[in-house]
Amino acid sequence: MRLLLASLLLPLIAVPHPSTGSPRGEAYGTRDVIVIGRIENLDYQLVYDPEDLLGHGWITARLHVARVLRGHVPSSVLSVRYFAHSYRYGEGDVRLHLRRRSKGTYFICADGGEGVRCR
């Protein structure tokens, strides 16, 4: 009986608390924010690497926050940066994992693939 009860409770114990991560298994830091918003791309700064045939760069953008899912943001419009091959976010709202930088801007954290790793 105890073994049966323990086996039924094990999945409940093994599931991480919602404050420690997301459904995707991301770990959040104290400077991390999860938002839904629209990206307005502004500038692309190429990072030269002779072995990178596609080319990658730092993209500066303006994020118009529609909803905050985790954390707090100082404004509904944020300055953000992300690292990518080209502009990644088109029209419409997207869910983004942001990490605050000391200069008042935010990095858009990579969700797999290329970009800034926030783990």
Describe the structure.
It is a single chain. With about 120 residues, this protein is mainly beta. The chain has one helix and five strands, in the order H-E-E-E-E-E. The chain has a five-stranded mixed barrel. Strand 1 (about 30-45) and strand 2 form a beta hairpin.
Radius of gyration, whole Å: 18 Å
In N-to-C order, the SSE pattern is HEEEEE
Round the mean pLDDT to the nearest integer and report it: 75
Q: Assign an overall shape.
A: globular
Percent helix: 10-25%
Distance between the termini: 41 Å
**Beta-strand segment tally:** 5
Task: Note the total helix count.
Answer: 1
Low-confidence runs? 8-23
Q: What would you call the structural class?
A: mainly beta
Strand line-up of the largest beta sheet = 1-2-3-5-4
**Major sheet, described briefly?**
5 strands, mixed, barrel
Taken as a percent bin, the fraction of beta residues is 35-45%
Oligomer: single chain
Short account of what is shown:
The chain has 119 residues and is mostly beta strands. 11% of the residues lie in helices and 41% in strands.
Topology, please?
Elements: H1 2-14, E1 32-47, E2 56-70, E3 77-84, E4 94-100, E5 106-108
Parallel strand pairs: 3-5
Antiparallel strand pairs: 1-2, 1-4, 2-3, 4-5
Any key phrases for this structure?
11% helix; mainly beta
